[in-house]
């Protein structure tokens, strides 16, 4: 049985006097123990809201979460706040994008790391501090003894992200959710953090849900990749499959539009026309249809169903035939 | 700042060189104290950069946050006054121009900024944004010709003509960047300095703007200086690329040469760190992981700036002599004492222990965060 089973997860934001907004629309995926699953998409595709919904971090008012999130046999969406607090940090760890705003600026790093250990593992202050030192050492922070007493602003961006990872891994959770953990960092620091996460995930056998917009990060790290567009998974496949033969026009378009470092120079990029806001509601058809080079009339009238094609899930009426080059598009 | 007469500068640039930057330095003072306002040190943001940009080419400037690439761009345009050095633009010493002469010359050098929303006035319509520059430089010659010009501009950047009456908030990020580009184009510049032109945009939209920049260059014969942290984007659009580390250029070559055979250890590490969206490549390639963070530009390491993190560091020279940028292959310049030996494989990389870096921010500039946006802002609130 999978460690985490997300089924038909839907998040609707409701505001007085406004139409409800479906940020996440029936997302389903499984995470096996020790597996790394990627959620990829551009801004506004619902990838971060998915992670917040799994962690139970969305506000009770204004956000309606339906569907099911089963972790190790327990339905997380039905747990009380108190029970959920016991799980967060112990069974489920989370690393956020911006380490400066997710660390408390007026509490020393050491206290923030040992807090988790005291709360969940019932350690004394002293034990927790010594364990915290080991944790900082493990995530590659030099001179951990001194860093314990320092405040977040005294650390560099990369060090802060390491401290955050140390907090998330303090109780050795079985599942770690990382929401754009390297987006705010420089490439060389990003490489350090990704190498660290890969190593820790392997050593501890932690399952990882990696949320990112960077297809390059996904290519190197994830076993299975879910591509999200406007709140729905449009394509899901194992990474080698997905990158070698993208079938959904959106995935195909994304890969054709990013310049690659190893590509010969002078190769023209093929952008996807329009922008993320040019979509139609899923209820009326395919949200990607207005930007899609393969769109048929059917795409504007009927919602494509999720189909299983040899282990790949695809939501498209007219998928890309493997091997075809990207369609030349004039940007509008 | 050194004052040099504009006339003496004319002879030093050849016809095909549009811009030449000589020994550019920008040092920001660090002030302490309320009443006395003592200067206790300097941030060496740009510390001696020489570069040349040829007419019609795209020069890409890459580096990580804090390496001084944006400050260099701003100093060239004199949006930040350089501490030392000068820029010769089309035969005139731009650094010594003053008053009206400076204002009129600025028409020929335009800038495209990173964040299109904050660099466009929210209360000005697109028409007024575009006309402003034309008026300032006396290019607004009657309603009819200006109207025609505006429609041409919008067509050139791929926006519908009805956009003129709209305001910046009515556009998407990619469209706003097009407005920013149209504004720069309006006054018929020779050089466009684009500081992170696509990093605030979504991946699928980035390619649209990158292609647009290339089309405009072919159409109008523009010269570009593109400043960016995304190496893949820079490689894609640039003819020549300069890599900056801690205020200085460490390597300069044509885009193909640089990516095919990086000679400086820093460039090697940087290139190996960029993820490639192809699992087969990702599984195969070897990463050179740099230890630690970028040292503080207020207290740069002695000798070679990179020696504290360099896996190829040698016992001699590296920590004492600052290497100069020298040409070791045609058109390929490197600032490394041991570049030839490293390339020939005579020197093997070794482990480097990370060194503590104090209060240095490793955050990338493309993420808007609360706090001062630049060193200048932090120092003069």
Describe the protein's architecture and organization.
The complex is a heterodimer of chains A (332) and B (381). Chain A is α/β, with parallel strands linked by helices. Chain A has 11 helices and 12 strands. In chain A, the strands form 2 sheets. An 8-stranded mixed beta sheet of chain A has the order 6-7-8-3-9-10-12-11, with helices on both faces. Chain A has a 4-stranded antiparallel beta sheet with strand order 2-1-4-5, with helices on one face. In chain A, strand 11 and strand 12 form a beta hairpin. Chain A starts with a strand and ends in an 18-residue tail after the last strand. The C terminus of chain A is likely disordered. Chain B has 381 residues and is α/β, with parallel strands linked by helices. Chain B has a domain of 78 residues. Helix content of chain B is 30%, strand content 21%. Chain B is built from 13 helices and 12 strands. Chain B has an 8-stranded mixed beta sheet with strand order 6-7-8-3-9-10-12-11, with helices on both faces. Chain B has a 4-stranded antiparallel beta sheet with strand order 2-1-4-5. In chain B, helix 5 packs across helix 6 and helix 6 packs parallel to helix 7. Chain B is globular, with a radius of gyration of 22 Å. The N terminus and C terminus of chain B are likely disordered. The interface between A and B is large, with 63 and 62 residues.
Attribute tags:
heterodimer, A: about 325 residues, alpha/beta, eight-stranded mixed sheet, four-stranded antiparallel sheet, about 20% strand, disordered C terminus, B: about 375 residues, globular, disordered N terminus, Oligopep_ABC_C (chain B), ATP-binding (chain B)
């Amino acid at each position: 049985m999978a460690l985490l089973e997300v089924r038909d997860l839907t998040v609707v934001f409701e505001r007085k006097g406004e139409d409800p907004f479906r940020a996440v629309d029936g997302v389903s995926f499984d995470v096996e123990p020790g597996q790394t699953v990627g959620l990829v998409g551009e801004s506004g595709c619902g990838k971060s809201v998915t992670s917040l919904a799994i962690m139970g971090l969305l506000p009770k008012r204004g956000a309606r979460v339906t569907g099911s999130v089963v972790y190790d046999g327990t339905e997380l969406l039905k747990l009380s706040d108190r029970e959920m607090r016991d799980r967060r940090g112990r069974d489920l760890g989370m690393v956020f994008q911006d380490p400066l705003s997710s660390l408390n600026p007026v509490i020393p790093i050491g206290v923030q790391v040992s807090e988790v250990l005291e709360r969940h593992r019932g350690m004394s202050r002293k034990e927790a501090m010594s364990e915290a030192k080991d944790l900082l050492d493990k995530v590659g922070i030099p001179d951990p003894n001194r860093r314990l007493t320092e405040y977040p602003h005294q650390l560099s961006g990369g060090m802060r992200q390491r401290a955050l990872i140390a907090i998330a891994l303090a109780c050795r959770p079985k599942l770690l959710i990382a929401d754009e953990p390297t987006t705010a960092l420089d490439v060389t620091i990003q490489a350090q953090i990704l190498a660290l996460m890969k190593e820790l995930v392997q050593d501890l056998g932690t399952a990882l849900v990696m949320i990112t917009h960077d297809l390059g990060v996904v290519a190197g790290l994830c076993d299975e990749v879910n591509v999200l567009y406007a709140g729905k998974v449009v394509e899901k496949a194992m990474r080698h499959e997905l990158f070698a033969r993208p079938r959904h026009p959106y995935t195909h378009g994304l890969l054709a539009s990013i310049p690659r470092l190893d590509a010969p120079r002078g190769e023209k990029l093929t952008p996807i026309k329009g922008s993320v806001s040019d979509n139609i509601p899923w209820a009326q058809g395919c949200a990607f249809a207005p930007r899609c080079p393969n769109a048929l009339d059917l795409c504007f009238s009927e919602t494509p169903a999720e189909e299983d094609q040899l282990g790949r899930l695809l939501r498209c009426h007219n998928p890309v035939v493997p091997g075809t080059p990207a369609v030349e598009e004039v940007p509008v | 700042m050194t004052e040099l007469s504009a006339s003496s500068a004319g002879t030093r640039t050849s016809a095909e060189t549009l811009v030449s930057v000589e020994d550019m330095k920008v040092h920001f003072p660090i002030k302490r104290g309320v009443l006395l306002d003592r200067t206790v040190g300097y941030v060496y943001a740009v510390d001696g950069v020489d570069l040349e940009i040829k007419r019609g080419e795209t020069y890409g400037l890459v580096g990580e946050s804090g390496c001084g690439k944006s400050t260099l761009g701003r100093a060239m345009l004199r949006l930040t006054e350089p501490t030392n050095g000068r820029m010769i633009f089309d035969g005139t010493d731009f650094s010594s121009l003053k008053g009206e002469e400076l204002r009129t010359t600025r028409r020929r050098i335009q800038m495209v900024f990173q964040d299109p929303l904050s660099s466009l006035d929210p209360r000005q319509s697109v028409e007024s944004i575009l006309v402003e520059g034309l008026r300032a430089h006396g290019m607004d010659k009657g309603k009819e010709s200006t109207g025609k010009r505006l429609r041409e501009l919008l067509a050139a950047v791929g926006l519908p003509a009805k956009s003129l009456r709209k305001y910046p908030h009515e556009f998407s990020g990619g469209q706003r960047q097009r407005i920013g580009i149209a504004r720069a184009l309006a006054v018929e510049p020779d050089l466009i300095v684009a500081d992170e032109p696509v990093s605030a945009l979504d991946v699928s939209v980035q390619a649209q703007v990158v292609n647009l920049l290339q089309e405009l260059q072919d159409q109008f014969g523009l010269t570009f200086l593109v400043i960016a942290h995304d190496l893949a984007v820079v490689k894609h659009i640039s003819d020549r690329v300069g890599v900056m580390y801690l205020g200085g250029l460490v390597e300069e070559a044509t885009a193909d040469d640089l990516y095919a055979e990086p000679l400086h250890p820093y460039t090697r590490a940087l290139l190996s760190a960029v993820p490639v969206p192809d699992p087969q490549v990702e599984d195969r390639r070897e990463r050179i992981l740099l230890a630690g963070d970028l040292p503080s530009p207020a207290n740069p390491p002695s000798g070679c700036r990179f020696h504290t993190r360099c896996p190829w560091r040698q016992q001699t020279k590296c920590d004492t002599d600052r290497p100069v940028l020298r040409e070791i292959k045609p058109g390929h310049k490197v600032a490394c004492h041991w570049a030839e030996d490293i390339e020939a494989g005579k020197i093997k990389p070794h482990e480097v222990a990370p060194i503590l870096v104090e209060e240095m921010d490793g955050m990338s500039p493309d993420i808007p965060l609360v706090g001062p946006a630049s060193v200048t802002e932090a120092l003069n609130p």
